[in-house]
Task: inverse folding
């Protein structure tokens, strides 16, 4: 079976994630129905608008399916995707998956016009890498639990976290062509090229 990554494509900025996976030589598919999760080994929850995503997830029946999928498979969430993975989004209109023990303040970086590109240092597995990251109406991680590993900070606040097999980012690496976080989250799938292309 070819290993594949799903990209939640109900709403928001999902196409650029596909380009990153194409560059990495990883098969991917857009996920709009629960049944698509049967064919994938990891999932990306893209940026967008978490209140809208909440409504669409509820309507499509995908909410429960993603919660059980996340038990066994890695999830990478960016921006609104990070909000959806949090324990608490501090907003009744957003129903989160509770995959990361973090609390969030939505839109903490201000309005669309306050969007910015920043250079960050990512520290992971004794490796340090400098990357560019785009923040757009970004959420802020205002609390994180002991089991949450912070792999990058922006102005002293965690902006990239890993907990177990899941990775969450308050910015958009895909807008700067940065594949590092896809490689970290889907390490097992990407490094298992035998498995990737075996019949
Ligand atoms: N502000 C959005 C939200 O609260 C997130 C913005 C983004 O994904 N770029 O859902």
Result:
């Amino acid at each position: 079976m070819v290993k594949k990554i799903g990209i939640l494509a109900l709403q928001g900025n999902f196409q650029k994630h596909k380009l990153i996976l194409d560059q990495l030589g990883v098969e991917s598919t857009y996920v709009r129905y629960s049944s698509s999760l049967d064919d994938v080994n990891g999932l990306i929850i893209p940026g967008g608008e978490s209140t809208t995503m909440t409504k669409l997830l509820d309507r499509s029946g995908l909410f429960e399916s993603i919660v059980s999928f996340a038990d066994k498979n890695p999830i990478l969430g960016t921006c609104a995707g990070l909000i959806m993975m949090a324990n608490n989004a501090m907003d009744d209109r957003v129903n989160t998956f509770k995959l990361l023990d973090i609390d969030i303040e939505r839109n903490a970086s201000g309005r669309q016009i306050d969007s910015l590109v920043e250079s960050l240092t990512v520290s992971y597995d004794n490796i340090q890498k400098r990357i560019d990251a785009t923040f757009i109406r970004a959420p802020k991680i205002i609390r994180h639990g002991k089991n949450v590993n912070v792999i990058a900070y922006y102005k002293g606040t965690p902006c990239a976290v890993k907990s177990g097999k899941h990775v969450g980012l308050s910015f958009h690496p895909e807008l700067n062509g940065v594949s590092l976080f896809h490689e970290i989250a889907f390490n097992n799938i990407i490094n298992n090229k035998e498995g990737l292309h075996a019949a």
Q: What stands out?
A: The CA atoms of residues 134 and 175 lie 7 Å apart. Residues 4-190 form a domain with the Rossmann fold fold (CATH 3.40.50.880). Confidence is low (pLDDT under 50) at residues 194-199. The chain is about 25% helix and 35% strand.
